[in-house]
TrEMBL record:
Annotated Low complexity bias: 595-607
Boundaries of every Xylanolytic transcriptional activator regulatory domain copy: 325-397
Protein name: Fungal-specific transcription factor domain-containing protein
Any single Gene Ontology cellular-component annotation: nucleus
Biased composition (Pro residues): 131-141
InterPro entries, alphabetized: Transcr_Regulatory_Elem (IPR051615), XnlR_reg_dom (IPR007219), Zn2-C6_fun-type_DNA-bd_sf (IPR036864), Zn2Cys6_DnaBD (IPR001138)
Principal place of residence: nucleus
Signal peptide (residue range): none
Residue span of region Disordered: 119-200, 585-609
Cellular location(s): Nucleus
Keyword terms, alphabetized: DNA-binding, Metal-binding, Nucleus, Transcription, Transcription regulation, Zinc
GO biological process terms, semicolon-separated: DNA-templated transcription
GO-annotated molecular function: DNA binding; DNA-binding transcription factor activity, RNA polymerase II-specific; zinc ion binding
Length: 755
């Protein structure tokens, strides 16, 4: 720059540009440099004050969750400081220490690549299932070395099962309740009850069924202790905040009554029953109020209605009304999709709204897929759905304690005593281990979302018309399950955490694996050492082992509502394997099950099964019997096992429960209870005949006549023979869906062959 001229701010400036061979140099005046430095210093001081203000807020219990959630949500320190200046005047001249003390749940995008663990143990190099499962190669459709036999004892799956089973064989449930000497098994510290915020509005704000605020709080605590967060479509923090304050944004009478109806399943108090003398009416009064409100609504497109439908579905599953449960779950996810909750990006919504919307969608998504898995059908979402981000892991929520909670303080104390006593007896377990555990609720929920994505893929692998199942597709999705399990967080591995939600997640994994392979137990996979029958056997053993651990820790009077479905599925597999590998085999081959479930040995002889299978079946029956007072589907499951055992000629002693004796005056008709009815979709009705599918109209055969009986018997025999010859699939419930699998020569091309 010409030192005698003026600079116009350009580089080079106009004067220098007009001259030849002149270098344009601009020297910054010293005074401007000092001013710039002062500005920078002021900026650093402001940043320091903002940081100090945020740090000060982090040490205040009423602000820490809010500040952490905003930091994880991507807000800058300066933005949070400005918010504090407005909301909390005691921090650096801002205003008000009140503010919102509830944590808005933040969400972050996750990979979505679910990796699932093996049914086999991966701990020892000498045992089955060592190492991660490699992806299937072009010449071999599956890894040939991992899980070679896939046969192991259930104790390997749960570090609590072995030590417990080596002690007393009595159930911890009855053992705990039978302890009168409270000082002998007294916990070292008083076990606190789960803390719920104190209600600031009367109970009538949310329900017309009861004015007892203590009962309302109690039932909500039971739900959040034993059922939440699996299949939960609500955000606990947001719900409780609005519930206690009486705000209808994330709470509604429909949702509250649904939660209370479900919470009643975990209580034996007469006040939780519509008829105090009838346990089968538990929660019916709250549920009828749900239905009344729901059918009065003119528009169901609200977050709380979607959430309530999911809770209603879970409650009906517990009651054994599978058709109603399936319907409510379907309505919930359809409404979520119609509202666009599956394609949220967070734009245009505040943090609270985004968090609750995402939780609502993922809960509906997971529940719909659980029912699709259980009934053999495609889910409501398309093959490649657009999905919202999964929940972020929030340290404060993760570290919140899970504490066992029952009907009264004594029940809590006894349960805590039993838990600590059992843990102190476990080999390798620390003495006096507390029953209080970090809930890890966010990790559980996130893993459940990932697992539901894998279930989604497996359902489309099995049930897509026009694209029959192949061994390559089957083993590919199986490998994804194995890899997902390898990569679950350390805090969710058995031995680190044993809350009901964690044990349930492990059971659900084995349930998914079992139903992936169950239709194929009559087949072998060409070129692979993976045996569908062995995988199913091992998954059934794993469910039994996990449930034994659950029973000895908490009893089976308080289990999540889908656990009886897991037990039924594993017990059916034990029955099927017992019928196949019975001591009486046909000459030259194994005992075979026809599709109808009838043993090919004929009905004249009963199969003698091995002691290991007898033990597994007996355990399943005992588990269902213990769950029956809490989940009435367990009674239906026992009837199903009775029918299938009789059909498959297996000697199994399944005594009727006390409720069944009273209901049927001592002589319950088990066969009739497994028949389909016109008021149900009959997903779990195994006793299906030709007349349930065929409609006789204008035929000359009289109903109930000898000709009809002979014709029906002959038709049934021919149908069974044709099914056994042509149908390579196995499924015990005719009304459920089945995989799209080719037959004949195409079966071998798909990579399968009959055993």
């Amino acid at each position: 720059m010409d030192p005698h001229g003026q600079c116009d701010g350009q580089r080079p400036c106009s004067r220098c540009a007009a001259q030849k061979d002149v270098e344009c140099v601009y020297e910054i005046p010293v005074r401007q440099s000092k001013e710039t430095l002062r500005n920078e210093i002021d900026q650093l001081r402001r940043q320091q004050r903002s940081s100090e203000q945020v740090l000060t807020a982090l040490v205040r219990s009423e602000l820490v969750e809010e500040v952490l959630s905003r930091l994880r949500g991507g807000q800058s320190v300066e933005a949070i400081s400005r918010w504090l200046g407005v909301a909390v005047p005691s921090l650096g001249g801002a205003a008000g220490a009140g503010g919102n003390t509830s944590s808005p749940v933040g969400f972050a995008t996750a990979s979505g690549s679910g990796h699932y663990g093996a049914v086999a143990n991966k701990g020892s190099g000498s045992g089955p299932g060592t190492g991660p499962a490699p992806a299937p190669g072009p010449t071999s459709p599956a890894p040939s070395q991992q899980h070679q036999n896939l046969r192991q004892e259930p104790e390997q799956h749960s570090p609590w099962a072995g030590p417990f089973s080596s002690r007393s064989q009595s159930r911890v449930g009855s053992w705990v309740e039978g302890q009168e000497d409270s000082q002998r098994f007294a916990p070292q510290t008083q076990v606190p009850t789960p803390e719920l915020p104190e209600m600031r509005v009367p109970p009538e704000t949310w329900t017309t069924i009861t004015a007892d605020g203590g009962l309302v709080q109690h039932l909500l605590a039971l739900y959040f202790c034993w059922e939440y967060p699996t299949f939960a479509s609500l955000s606990k923090e947001h719900f409780l905040r609005d519930f206690t304050e009486g705000r209808p944004r994330f709470c509604s009478p429909l949702l509250v009554n649904a939660l209370l109806a479900l919470g009643c399943r975990f209580s034996s108090k007469p006040s939780t029953r519509a008829n105090p003398m009838d346990p089968h009416t538990s929660g019916d009064h709250f549920f009828k109020e749900c239905q009344r409100i729901y059918y009065q609504e003119q528009d169901h497109h609200t977050l709380t209605t979607i959430q309530a439908l999911g809770i209603m579905s879970i409650r009906e599953a517990s009651c054994g009304r599978d058709s109603e449960s399936w319907y409510y779950a379907g309505q919930s996810v359809r409404l979520a999709i119609e509202m666009g909750l599956h394609q949220l990006d967070g734009d245009g919504h505040d943090d609270d709204e985004t968090a609750v919307q995402a939780a609502t969608f993922w809960g509906a998504f997971a529940l719909d897929h659980a029912w699709s898995l259980a009934t053999g059908s495609l889910p409501q979402c398309s093959c490649f759905p657009r999905l919202p981000p999964k929940p972020a892991i929030i340290d404060d929520i993760e570290a919140s304690l899970w504490i066992p909670y029952t009907d009264d303080g004594k029940g809590i104390s006894r349960l805590a005593s039993a838990l600590e006593q059992r843990l102190s007896q476990s080999e390798g377990a620390p003495l006096q281990r507390s029953c209080e555990q970090p809930s890890n609720v966010r990790s559980v929920y996130k893993c459940f979302c990932e697992l539901s994505e894998l279930v989604h893929q497996s359902l489309y692998v099995l049930h897509s018309p026009g694209r029959p199942l192949t061994s390559r597709d089957l083993l590919s999705i199986y490998t994804q399950y194995l890899n997902w399990y390898d990569r679950i967080p350390e805090v969710l591995r058995l031995g680190h955490n044993f809350t009901p939600a964690v044990l349930f997640a492990h059971m659900y994994y084995h349930f998914a694996i079992l139903l992936l392979f169950r239709p194929l137990i009559k087949l072998r996979i060409i070129g692979s050492s993976i045996s569908p029958r062995d995988v199913c056997s091992q998954a059934a053993d794993a469910i039994s082992g996990l449930l034994r651990s659950y029973s000895q820790l908490y009893t089976l009077r308080r289990t999540p509502s889908f656990v009886p479905y897991f037990v039924l599925t594993s017990s059916i597999m034990h029955l099927a394997i017992g019928a196949t590998f019975s001591g009486e085999k046909q000459p030259g081959g194994e005992t075979e099950l026809t599709q109808s479930g009838q043993s090919s040995q004929g009905p004249s002889r009963s199969s003698k099964i091995g002691p290991r299978v007898v033990e597994a079946i007996t355990r399943g029956i005992a588990d269902l019997t213990e769950m029956a007072p809490c989940h009435f589907f367990a009674e239906q499951a026992l009837n199903i096992l009775r029918f299938l055992a009789k059909k498959w000629n297996i000697e199994v002693d399944i005594s009727p429960t006390e409720d069944e004796k009273q209901l049927h005056h001592g002589r319950p008709n088990f066969d009739q209870s497994t028949r389909p009815v016109t008021s149900s979709l009959n997903f779990f009705s195994p006793n299906v005949g030709d007349t349930d599918f065929n409609c006789n109209w204008g035929e000359s055969i009289k109903p109930g006549g000898d000709t009809e009986r002979r014709t029906g018997a002959l038709g049934e025999h021919l149908a069974e023979t044709a099914s056994a010859l042509e149908n390579p699939l196995f499924w015990p419930f005719p009304m459920q869906g089945r995989p799209m699998l080719p037959t004949g020569e195409e079966l071998e091309k798909a990579g399968f062959e009959l055993l």
